[in-house]
Please model this.
Amino acid sequence: MTHHRIGVMGGSFDPIHNGHLVAASEVAHRFDLDRVLFSPTGLAWRKTAEHAASAELRYLMTVVATAADARFDVTRVDIDRQGPTYTVDTLRDLQAQFVQEHPDDTASWFFITGADALADIVAWRDPDQILAHAHLIGVTRPGHELADPGLPAGAATLVEVPALAISSTDIRARVGRGEPIRYLVPAGVQHLIAKHGLYAAPQP
Model:
């Protein structure tokens, strides 16, 4: 019997950027994770606006961005599921998949998200079930003050990641203004953004 330590990083990844990769790498190191599964959202239930890039392109960008790190994988569970993406469903589906693929093994699960989102966890669907399924890790940029989410002691850990000053919102805006995004996103992601004309300002 083998025990696995698995991280799950959920997000829209619209686009995925180097801050996401640094955060996943830092958490994998600190928590001795064997794998980090990146799970692009299908339809994000908290966001009223549509994603700027399609689910398939966000999935493709995430695959390209994570390909060079043997610890990183990308899952389609949220993209292929109908309806809004809820964290509790992500964890349930991935854990059921794990049991099916590794019936004789055990696993500890860690859900990685932005610390601002973590502070709002009481508003998530079935927060008690989420806590039962995984240890929560909130990643944040250094010096960023957070509201106490009121979680039970030991249920969550905050990790400071300097590269999280990069944001997907800023990258989309930079592309729209014709500004460089090199070194903010992996080169393969930059090529996909250019190839598919993602985030460009609408032509008059």
Summary: The longest helix spans residues 87-101.
